[in-house]
Amino acid sequence: MIRLGRPLSEAVDCFQGDPALRLLPVLDERDCPAGAIYERDMRRILFNPFGHALLRNPSFGGRLDDHVQPCATIDRSASVEALIDLYAAQGQGCEGLILTDGGRYAGTVGGPLLLRLAAERDTRLAMARIERLERVTHESASFRADIEKLIADMVAMADRLSALAAEAAGRAGNNGQASAGMAVAAAQTADNLSGIAASGRDLAQLFQSMEDEVRRAGDAIRKAVEQARLGSRHNRTLSAQADGIGEVTALIDDIARAIGMLALNASIEAARAGEAGHGFAVVAHEVKQLAGQTRGAAAEIAGRIGEIRATAAQVAEGHVHMDAAIATADRAAVAVFDAVARHGAFSRTMADSVAEAGGSSDHIRQSASRISDNAAAAVDSADAMRKAADQLADEAHRLDARATAFLTAIRAA
């Protein structure tokens, strides 16, 4: 360094003494940088044919202050980045920077050192960019693999969801058809049971009439002793009543057989209906038992009718055994009355059971109708699920395209 006011020749001596020197800091009286003498300016003077003469000229050579040029200064505590940025801001002609400490001269930093620092910084930045690019490339590949796996899983899920929706729609459709068939069968069964209930009520009325007839027949038998001459007519009346009872017994047997078949069909339909037809199956079983009891009672009535007919034949053979025949007929009438009374109670119970079964059939029909409606709703839900699965697959493909574009842009950057 050199101070203001010194001869220019001293600056020349400094440059000659240090061939690597490119700038010579010039300080004022407070040791603050006032500028610098640059080697290139001194070279132009020395290479001038009259350069040495000019240096020896007191009026020229003594004016060092006239050759001081501005030079950028920076505090010595500044970072390397600040040094490089200030050096770059000076342009291509900058030979270095003057370092200060609290505003006072502290040293110089030459251009070669600054260039080397700048090159090192650029190298570090380039290496950092390369490392970042490598990390981005690695992360992009990993991200791409994750996205592809995610998209594949989403597509597989969408396909599975679509298949499940189609399967659910098929099952719901089948359930709807089965429920509709069950509703029709339940309606038919309810109609049949309504007819059977009406027949049962008619049968109960018929048994009531039969009770009255048997009671009158018993009265006639008891009066036979007093009215022996009317025995033949009473005998014919009794035979006619026996024939009527035989017809009723045959009717009871036919109705009981029909009820048994209906109960069997109802049990089969209840088994097909599953849990919903459990109550109906119980009622059908009870109806079947009542039908069996009715057929047994009808058979018993038929046997009793045979006894009545035999008794009537004996009465027709003669009045010799009239008393015994009348006693036998009386016992038979009592037995018939009891049997008719039991069958009347059976018929009324059967009518009530059949009416209850008809109500259960209506309930089953309503339940089947609700099941059919629910199955239709399930079909609609399955269709909506399949549409959602298709939309999910479309979104997965769109995500694939977007991820590909993103990774391409990252690699290009």
Automatic annotation (TrEMBL):
<keyword id="KW-0807">Transducer</keyword>
<dbReference type="GO" id="GO:0016020">
    <property type="term" value="C:membrane"/>
</dbReference>
<dbReference type="GO" id="GO:0004888">
    <property type="term" value="F:transmembrane signaling receptor activity"/>
</dbReference>
<dbReference type="InterPro" id="IPR004090">
    <property type="entry name" value="Chemotax_Me-accpt_rcpt"/>
</dbReference>
<dbReference type="GO" id="GO:0006935">
    <property type="term" value="P:chemotaxis"/>
</dbReference>
<dbReference type="InterPro" id="IPR046342">
    <property type="entry name" value="CBS_dom_sf"/>
</dbReference>
<protein>
    <recommendedName>
        <fullName>Methyl-accepting transducer domain-containing protein</fullName>
    </recommendedName>
</protein>
<dbReference type="Pfam" id="PF00015">
    <property type="entry name" value="MCPsignal"/>
</dbReference>
<comment type="similarity">
    <text>Belongs to the methyl-accepting chemotaxis (MCP) protein family.</text>
</comment>
<feature type="domain" description="Methyl-accepting transducer">
    <location>
        <begin position="157"/>
        <end position="383"/>
    </location>
</feature>
<dbReference type="InterPro" id="IPR004089">
    <property type="entry name" value="MCPsignal_dom"/>
</dbReference>
<dbReference type="GO" id="GO:0007165">
    <property type="term" value="P:signal transduction"/>
</dbReference>
